[in-house]
């Protein structure tokens, strides 16, 4: 890996699991199915970009609405990055402003 990795841009798999409330085994499953991707750091530890937390939140949200993992995966792959940024920002915004 020639790309320099900033520690601020990436989280270890355990940190992702703790912050998202998703088991490490589920993260491995998501990665195997193509929902998320990781890199390896110099210690050969699996690391993920911080934005993965938004994808995981979206997956959990869609599952709670009753969408299948296959449907979620198809829709995630069809989103363009700017569409996903809009969507994830909308998820972080309050529905009703005070």
Please, could you describe this protein's structure?
This protein is mostly helical and 98 residues long. The chain has 5 helices and 3 strands. It has a 3-stranded antiparallel β-sheet with strand order 1-3-2. Strand 2 (39-40) and strand 3 (46-49) form a beta hairpin. It is elongated, with a radius of gyration of 14 Å. The N and C termini lie far apart (47 Å).
Mean pLDDT: 81
SSE order, as H and E?
Answer: EHHEEHHH
Query: Poorly predicted ranges (pLDDT <50, ≥5 residues)?
Result: none
Radius of gyration: 14 Å
In DSSP terms (H or I, runs of 4 or more residues), the helix count works out at 5
Largest sheet: 3 strands, antiparallel
* DSSP strand tally: 3
Order of the strands making up the biggest sheet: 1-3-2
Report the sheet-strand fraction: 5-15%
Which features characterize this protein?
single chain; 98 residues; mainly alpha; 3-stranded antiparallel beta sheet
Compact summary:
This protein is mainly alpha-helical and 98 residues long. The chain has helices spanning 13-20, 24-33, 52-64, 69-78, 81-92, and strands at 10-12, 39-40, 46-49.
What's the arrangement of secondary structure elements?
Layout: E1 10-12, H1 13-20, H2 24-33, E2 39-40, E3 46-49, H3 52-64, H4 69-78, H5 81-92
Antiparallel strand pairs: 1-3, 2-3
